[in-house]
């Protein structure tokens, strides 16, 4: 991929570059705003604002596809001359910042900071972020940096992205930052240690730096060729944290080039192209009563393609964790066909309403089955998933996964499974689980707010705190307990003053949990699940947990039933159908009993 990089060094003192700095700030702020995800980067008048004194005295790098094209990405490199203004110093405080430098054995004069790496959505899958990072790191290496320091978000694995360049987190520095609406951590990179898997490229950028951006010069460009660009699609071993697919639309020139690069890279293990049969299904889904000849069907497909070659129609989806490249219909057509057989039970206008909703799921063992069932039925077009745990072998008695998934984070695993059902979903994950630090981010605000909470976690504090937050925001909560088919529904959207868990907790709040005794907590859990209604098997298991049992018993059949019950309740709530608060039991052991048999016994035909 070819990028043109404009580089400029803005003096710390002086105002001659005010217009340029203003443009750079607006560019950064608009991308950081991210359609409302970080509202602090938009002013009341709708303009985008990211004013930082640190912009003066820093190097600025802007990436374009063409020399005079629109900016697609940006990164800032600050030198020791502005070390007193570094974001990392402000984040840590002077004493903690100095302690980090001392632990690395460097002085402030040997420390550079890179920050504000932002890339437009349409360029992210083309490797621009990695290339810009290499440019800034290479420049710092050339200018004499012994270490680089910086703040990094952790949502969607930004810190892990920097880890591929040799950055490592400073222990104890991770915390939630309001303006970024996510956890932030301090990262450090040692020049002498190389740049991880990008060491060669960073070395090349360091060598090129004096030729395309000599000190004091302004806005020179570096056209790069595909051999220099470290595309995110370069061959590499998929990591355990890969969970987001890459989508290519071949009718777009940039996507076609990136897709070609991927196919030539050697990392694709299998190509699945069934677009011909998908097009046939699309035609039949639109007019099922029409009986067409082969020639008429071919004509309908040609009309649908509108001159586009079949291989270039729709979207190619790259799943890095399985090394599969899959060809699917465009978004609207894909969803029309995939949910076509829901009709009469879920009509198309209802399908569209459901796909416009965002669902939050906490706890992805039982919640995994709920998430998959919701996605299969087209209930929710956006998901926010939270779980801190990893898949273990003992989870596989009820959680659909393969043995190759052992050790993968449950949030990562669930996101992968949902994207394999519908690559067009909007998914966010919180692999640290739901905590006080990220509670507000999980529930979201405005267009990014969740419409429904599915709560399936094991921690009493999170169960209560999540419900307190949901009630305050008017968000309904569904919980399946996978014992006797117990389904719990709390309609905080229609009953804002409803007591948590139908009053079973009394006056206890989340803040009270740390002060409770072990017996109090045990009694609280029994109150949550209705101790007098649980199955005899589960009742017998409770005193054995930690003695003869490692945990409470759960069956795949119970969890699968729970997924169905959650989906049914979610669909009713999100479509405004009757679904009241309460606790309901769909006990299969009781229902599949002789007295419920609707077929009369047959007399024996044998003498």
Q: Nutshell version of this structure?
A:
The chain is of the alpha/beta class. The chain has helices at 18-33, 87-92, 94-104, 121-124, 128-142, 158-163, 199-212, 253-265, 275-286, 294-305, 331-338, 348-355, 366-377, 410-421, 439-443, 460-473, 518-529, 536-541, 556-574, 588-591; strands at residues 4-9, 58-64, 73-78, 111-119, 147-153, 168-169, 175-177, 182-190, 218-223, 246-248, 270-273, 315-319, 324-328, 358-362, 382-386, 426-430, 452-455, 477-480, 486-490, 582-585. Strands 1, 2, 3, 4, 5, 6, 7, 8 and 9 form a 9-stranded mixed beta sheet that branches. A 7-stranded mixed beta sheet has the order 16-15-14-17-18-19-20, with helices on both faces. The chain has a 4-stranded mixed beta sheet with strand order 10-12-13-11.
Care to describe what's here?
There is one protein chain. The protein has 607 residues and is an alpha/beta fold. The chain has 20 helices and 20 strands. Strands 1, 2, 3, 4, 5, 6, 7, 8 and 9 form a nine-stranded mixed β-sheet that branches. Helix 14 links the parallel strand 15 and strand 16. The termini are far apart. About 4% of the residues have low confidence.
Radius of gyration from the alpha-carbon trace, in angstroms: 28 Å
**In terms of per-residue confidence, which ranges show pLDDT below 50 for 5 or more consecutive residues?**
214-237
Shape verdict: globular
**By helix and strand content, what is the structural category?**
alpha/beta
């Amino acid at each position: 991929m070819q990028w043109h990089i404009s580089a400029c060094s803005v003096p710390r003192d002086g105002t001659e570059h005010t217009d340029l700095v203003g443009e750079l700030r607006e560019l950064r702020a608009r991308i950081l705003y991210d359609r409302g995800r970080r509202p602090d980067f938009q002013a009341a008048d709708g303009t985008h604002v990211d004013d930082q004194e640190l912009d003066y005295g820093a190097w600025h790098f802007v990436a374009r596809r063409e020399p005079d094209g629109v900016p697609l990405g940006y990164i800032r490199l600050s030198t020791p001359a502005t070390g007193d203004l570094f974001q990392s110093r402000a984040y840590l405080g002077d004493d903690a910042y100095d302690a980090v430098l001392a632990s690395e054995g460097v002085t402030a004069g040997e420390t550079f900071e890179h920050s504000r790496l932002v890339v437009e959505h349409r360029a992210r899958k083309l490797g621009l972020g990695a290339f810009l990072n290499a440019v800034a790191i290479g420049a710092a290496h050339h200018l004499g940096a012994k270490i680089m320091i910086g703040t990094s978000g952790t949502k969607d694995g930004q810190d892990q992205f920097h880890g591929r360049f040799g950055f490592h987190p400073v222990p104890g520095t991770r915390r939630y930052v309001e303006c970024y609406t996510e956890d932030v951590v301090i990262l450090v990179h040692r020049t002498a240690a190389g740049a991880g898997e990008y060491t060669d490229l960073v070395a090349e950028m360091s060598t090129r730096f004096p030729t395309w951006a000599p000190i004091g010069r302004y806005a020179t460009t570096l056209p790069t060729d595909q051999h220099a660009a470290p595309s995110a699609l370069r061959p590499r071993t998929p990591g355990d944290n890969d969970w987001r697919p890459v989508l290519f639309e071949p009718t777009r020139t940039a996507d076609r080039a990136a897709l070609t690069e991927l196919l030539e890279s050697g990392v694709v293990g299998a190509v699945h192209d069934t677009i011909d049969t998908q097009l046939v299904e699309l035609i039949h889904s639109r007019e099922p009563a029409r009986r067409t000849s082969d020639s008429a069907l071919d004509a309908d497909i040609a009309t649908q393609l509108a001159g586009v070659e079949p291989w270039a129609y729709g979207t190619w989806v790259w799943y890095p964790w399985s090394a599969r490249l899959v060809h699917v219909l465009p978004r609207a057509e894909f969803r029309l066909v995939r949910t076509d057989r829901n009709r009469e039970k879920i009509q198309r206008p209802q399908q569209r309403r459901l796909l416009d909703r965002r669902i939050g799921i906490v706890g992805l063992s039982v919640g995994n089955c709920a998430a998959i069932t919701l996605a299969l039925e087209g209930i929710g077009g956006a998901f926010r998933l939270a779980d801190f745990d990893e898949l273990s072998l003992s989870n596989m008695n009820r959680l659909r996964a393969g043995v190759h998934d052992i050790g993968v984070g449950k949030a990562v695993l669930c996101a992968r499974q949902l994207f394999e059902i519908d690559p067009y979903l909007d998914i966010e994950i919180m692999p640290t689980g739901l905590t006080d630090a990220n509670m507000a981010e999980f529930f979201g605000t405005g267009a990014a707010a969740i419409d429904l909470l599915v709560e399936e976690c094991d921690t009493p504090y999170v169960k209560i705190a999540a419900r307190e937050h949901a009630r305050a925001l008017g968000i309904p909560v569904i919980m399946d307990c996978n014992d006797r088919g117990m389904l719990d529904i709390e309609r905080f959207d229609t009953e804002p003053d409803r007591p948590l868990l139908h009053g079973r907790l009394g006056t206890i709040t989340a803040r009270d949990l740390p002060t409770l005794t072990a017996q109090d907590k045990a009694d609280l859990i029994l109150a949550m699940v209705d101790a007098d209604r649980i199955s005899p098997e589960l009742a017998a298991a409770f005193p054995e947990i930690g003695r003869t049992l490692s945990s409470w018993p759960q069956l795949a059949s119970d969890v699968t039933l729970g997924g169905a019950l959650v989906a049914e309740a979610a669909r009713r709530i999100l479509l405004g159908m009757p679904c009241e608060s309460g606790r309901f039991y769909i006990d299969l052991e009781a229902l599949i009993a002789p007295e419920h048999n609707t077929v009369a016994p047959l007399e024996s035909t044998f003498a």
